[in-house]
Amino acid sequence: MKFLAVLCIIFFTVAFSYANHYGCYNNSPCGAGRICYTSKGSCNCIEISHCLDVTLESTMKSEWDFNGTHYSQYDVQIHNHDLTTDISSIFIGVNPGIAASDFTQIWNARRLENGEFTLAYYQTGIPKNTTSNFGFIKKGFVNPDMAIFAVTY
Description:
Elements: H1 2-22, E1 34-39, E2 42-47, E3 54-66, E4 69-80, E5 89-94, E6 103-107, E7 109-111, E8 117-119, E9 130-139, E10 146-152
Parallel strand pairs: 1-10
Antiparallel strand pairs: 1-2, 3-4, 4-9, 5-8, 5-10, 6-9, 7-8
């Protein structure tokens, strides 16, 4: 019986730490078109169109060809519209048609092993009612479709 109790404690500890890392259970637990939204310890799946507290905007700034390879530079803005709470973490997915090697430069963000973007190591969050920017240069003609998978306030 004690073994079962210890096993349950370990299971719930691991599950809780995993849930805290991504906001809810994994990278995109809510499915396509939904955001895993955690605020004050409560996690909910909401439709992207109903998420007014955080928005994502990407803009292609320039494109060029060099030695037969096409390059594009993108700027991305993450808007925290919440007037009272800072964003502590955010995970942004990119369409899987773009390989990790296609990103030649990334600034003000970091790319995780699973291909998602998140805050740079030196950035502790996105303050309330502000915008955070990052950018990248990528090879190829495929446009990076980006979506917020999870956000934690």
